Amino acid sequence: MRIGAGHEVSHANDWFCAWLGLGAEHIVGRPLEEFLIQAHDDLFPAGSGPGPWMMLDKRRPSKAVMVTRSEGDGHEMLVLSEASERWRALCELRRSHALADRTRARLELVMDSSVAFSTATSEERLAMILADTATRAYRAEHSAVYLHQPGGSSTLAAGHDPFDGRVDYESLISLVSVPRRTIKVVGPEDGELLLPDLGAEMRAAGVHALIAAPLHHEEMDFGAFISWFHHVRTFDDEAAPLAEALAGQAAQALATLRLQNRLAHAATHDDVTGLPNRRLLELELSTIVGEVGCATLFVDLDGFKEVNDRLGHHAGDRLLHDAGRRLLSGVRAGDVVARFGGDEFVIVCRTDDPAAAMEVAHRVLELLHGLDDVASTHSRLNASIGVAWAPPSSGLSAEHLIRAADLAMYDAKAAGGDRIVLADTWTTVADPPPGDRRGNATARSDLPRAVI
C-alpha cells in the first residue's frame, strides 16, 4: 500500500482490499485514518522510522495489522501483514499482567487492612478504616459502612451515603445480609431488579455502579459495606473475593470489639439491674470526692428478704430491677446510681448543698412508694436511706463517704425504716417536702453528731 504526501491512500493492493472488505475505489484517495487507527496499547510506538507497529481496523478494532514503512519514488510505502491473533495475544498478556498487578496490590491492601482492623479501638474507627480501604481497593468515589445497632436500628457508621438517607439503611443492608453474598450492580437497571426505587435513586444521585458485601462472622450479622461509583464500571473476577476478604476481616474485628465491650461492661455493671456495680461506683466516686461537693445516698430496700424467701429469686430479681428503674427516674442528670450489693443501692450526687441531696432522697423514696406514674411490677417499695455529704476539698475518701451513708441508713432502719437519715447530724428529716404522704418522720437533733 502506498501513501501520498497528504497521508491519503494512493494505491491499495488486493490483499488490503480483501482484509478491509472494501473495493479499491472506496479506499484510494481517502485518508488512511478512515480505515486504520493506531493501537495505543502497542508495545512499539508508531512514531517516525520504519516500524514495526500495530494498527487496528477502525470499524472492527479486534482486527489488527503489523505495519512497516519505507520510502520510494516520492511515496511512502506501507507493508502490512495480518496480526489479529498476535494482537489478541498481546492484549491478553497485558490483561494478565494488569490482573497480576492488581492482585498483588489488593493482597497487600488486604494484609495492611488486617493490621489496621486489629488496632481499631472502637467501632467508629474500624468503620472508617473499612470505608477508606474499600474506596482505595476499588478506586470508588465513595464507600459507606452501615451497622446494626443493639437497639435494632441501623446507622451510617462511616463514609458517604450518596442517597442522603432516601433509601432506608436496613434495606441497603438486606441486599447482601439476607443472602449473605456479595453483589455487583452495573447500571441503574440492575439496581431496580434488586430493590424497588434503587434504580431511580441511582440515576438521581449519579451512581452508575456499586459493589456491596455483608459484614457477618459465624452467626452474627453486623451490617454491610458498599462502594459507590459515579463512573461506568465493570468488575473483574477478583472483585467479589476481595470484598468478601475485607468484609470478613472487618466483621471478625467487630466481633472481637463487641465481645471486649460486653466483658468490660459485665465487669463494671450489675447483670440484674444493668446499673454500675460496686467496683465502678468506687472508681467513679474516688474521682469526685474532694474535687467538688458530693453527697452519697445509701438505699436499702425494706422487707426485701421476705419477698425473696416467699416468692423466690426470680421475683426478687424483678423487684431489684424495678427498684433500679425507679431510682434512675428520680435522680438528676449527672448523678450516678449503682447497685452496691444485695438489696442495697448507692446514689452519688455532685452538689455543694446537702439540701439538694435531701431533695433527691425524698424524690426517690416517693418513687419507690409508687406515688408517681412509674410502670412497675410492685405498687409500693419501702426503703431506708442514709445520706452523707462532703464539702469540696474535704480530704475524705470514697470509702469513708460510703461508710458514713451506710451507718446513717442503719439508723434509719433501726428507727423503723421507710425514712431518711442525714449522716452529718444523725438527724432524721422532720419536715418532709410537699407531697410526702407519710408524715411519719421525727427530728432527732438531740442525738450526737456523726463525724464525716
From TrEMBL:
Region described as Disordered: spans on this chain: 430-452
Limits of the GGDEF domain: 292-425
Stored Gene3D superfamilies: 3.30.450.40, 3.30.70.270
UniProt xrefs under InterPro entries: Biofilm_reg_signaling, GAF-like_dom_sf, GGDEF_dom, Nucleotide_cyclase, Rev_trsase/Diguanyl_cyclase
Protein's UniProt name: Diguanylate cyclase (GGDEF)-like protein
